[in-house]
Amino acid sequence: MQLLVTLVGKFHMAVPRHHMAKGKQLRRRSHLALKGSVLTKCSHCSKMIMPHQVCKFCGFYKGREVLNVLAKELKKREKRTNARK
């Protein structure tokens, strides 16, 4: 029994120190709102893409081709036709 008393004495529940007004709480949470995504124009195909990402439409990044989109599309089509057989 004494062991139980000593253990209970060491651990405390979390209790708010002060009452927080609803206005203060909402002002604190005002920065938690979701922000709209920022899009930039691709330098090669002029489609709107996320900044610092390879364009998924043309495969270009910073003015040079990084990803061969046509080869990727052909490979995907070939895989789809083989799966149907």
- Which structural class fits the helix and strand makeup? mainly alpha
* Overall average residue pLDDT: 86
Total DSSP helices: 3
- Distance separating the two termini: 74 Å
The helix fraction, in percent, is 25-40%
* Total strands: 4
Specify the biggest β-sheet: 2 strands, antiparallel
Arrangement of strands in the largest sheet: 1-2
Share of β-strand residues: 5-15%
The parts where pLDDT drops under 50 for at least 5 residues are none
Radius of gyration: 29 Å
Inertia-based shape: elongated
What is the string of helix and strand elements?
A: HHEEEEH
Based on the model shown, name its key terms.
elongated, mainly alpha, single chain, 85 residues
Written account of the structure:
- Helices cover 39% and strands 9% of the residues.
- With 85 residues, it is mainly α.
- The chain has a domain at 36-85.
- The strands form two sheets. A two-stranded antiparallel ribbon has the order 1-2. The chain has a two-stranded antiparallel sheet with strand order 3-4.
Give the arrangement of secondary structure elements.
Elements: H1 2-10, H2 22-29, E1 40-41, E2 48-49, E3 60-61, E4 64-65, H3 69-84
Antiparallel strand pairs: 1-2, 3-4
Give a short synopsis of this structure.
Helices cover 39% and strands 9% of the residues. It is built from 3 helices and 4 strands, in the order H-H-E-E-E-E-H.
